[in-house]
Amino acid sequence: MLALITGASSGIGRDLARVLADEGYDLILVARREDKLNKLAKKLNNNTKIIKLDLSLEDNVFKLYESVKNEDIDIVINNAGFGLFGEFHETDLDTELKMIDLNVKAYHILTKLFLKDFIKKDKGYILNVCSSAGFMAGPKLSTYYATKNYVTKLTMAINEELRKRKSNIVISALCPGPVATEFNKVAHGTFSIREADSYKVAKYAIDKLFKRKMIIVPTLFMKIALFLNRFAPNKLALTIAYNIQTHKSR
């Protein structure tokens, strides 16, 4: 059994690797920081291949697929991504475009290419690490929320297509709230609500993926929040989203 995980050097990606290794999976781990990947691989009791790539570059996304397409991969986890706090008129455009390339284009390309392969053999799992942000608009994290909306809704649409085909392939969206990772450091901000434990989120995600759950929301707090968000008027939802996110200068 073999799983591919992008953004595996820290946070949820790292802990998904730990969980799958404990489940007996060999791994292909992808990230920019080779030193952290090697450090993680040494702690895992399995066969692990390390690939150093920046997936915000489109050519590298295709390069990754070409380098592993002949492997018998059972699970693809799209996890690489980042956010950026700040008012939309003040945030850096180049950083946002890079975010779109990583959070959207890389997910889109890898999902499509591996899904085509999985359809040929009628088996396989795809887990797209999204966010509770995928169901909301996010003042002060506007571009990040928009990218997560794209991937969440794309995943849901593909899930329905597969269901209509009576396919054995599973595609799921992991939609946690704030998680204790390096997200805040990279995004130059902080959340005002409690962050979930990354390992617990990863373990929950794999359990629900294998149970064919389309939308995976790890904590009761976020389950309730997303349920209530369905009934909130847009202006109220936007006000709440604005107030629970605070910008902190670095």
Structural class: alpha/beta
Mean pLDDT: 90
Number of DSSP-assigned strands: 9
Q: Helical region count?
A: 9
**Major sheet size, sense and barrel closure:** 7 strands, parallel
Helix content: 40-55%
H/E series: EHEHEHEHEHEHEHEHHE
**Could you list the spans in which at least 5 consecutive residues all have pLDDT below 50?**
184-189
Task: Name the shape in a single word.
Answer: globular
Descriptive tags:
250 residues, two-stranded antiparallel ribbon, 9 helices, 9 strands, 49% helix
Descriptive account of the structure:
- It is a single chain.
- The protein has 250 residues and is an alpha/beta fold.
- 49% of the residues lie in helices and 15% in strands.
- Helix 5 links the parallel strand 5 and strand 6.
- Helix 3 packs parallel to helix 4.
- About 2% of the residues have low confidence.
Quick overview of this protein structure:
The chain is an alpha/beta fold.
List the SSEs and their pairings:
Elements: E1 2-6, H1 11-22, E2 26-31, H2 34-43, E3 48-52, H3 58-68, E4 75-78, H4 93-121, E5 125-129, H5 142-164, E6 170-174, H6 183-187, E7 189-191, H7 198-210, E8 215-216, H8 220-229, H9 234-243, E9 245-247
Parallel strand pairs: 1-2, 1-4, 2-3, 4-5, 5-6, 6-8
Antiparallel strand pairs: 7-9
